[in-house]
Predict the structure.
Amino acid sequence: MPTFAEYGRLIAKPARDGSSYGLIFVNAKQDLVAVPQRRQGRGLLDRAVHCRVEATCGVLERSDGSAQSLPPIEIIPGEGAFDYTAKYLLKSTQEICPGRFSPEITAALKDQALRAHRALSCRGYSRTDFIVSAKGLVYLETNTLPRPDGDLAISQGAQAEGIEFADFLRDQIVLGRSGAFQSGN
């Protein structure tokens, strides 16, 4: 278990909720008392990473069997952390596609998103989230089935690559019919 002596600031996240719902920043030892009540059972306690910005990057598989990373999206929370409130309730959070990253950071985000997609045996499409810190990229998670019509990494990323939504759907249907979504393919 991480300690304040090692990291100073910790973060607690419930194991069962998505979209950063129930996320708790633990800034002092006494804040640990609130963690079990807020996370409703099992969860994750880890060091908090100071970040400049968060990023998300989608990956699409095409009907021809190829896979490509989409342009990464830069996420700038309106207030504080990119938690549930910043994601869904604040109008001040900015999601910029394509992100204003250096060419090196952009290439690393696309490469690591594609690697995560393949390592986790994802099929069709996925979205991988990162923190862009002064020390480099920090992998957060891969969403294996984000809503294609409401997920910016998929919808905006595909649009930025010139992929129409109808073409994306057609490719996903072709992949599904070909059995590409079955395990082992």
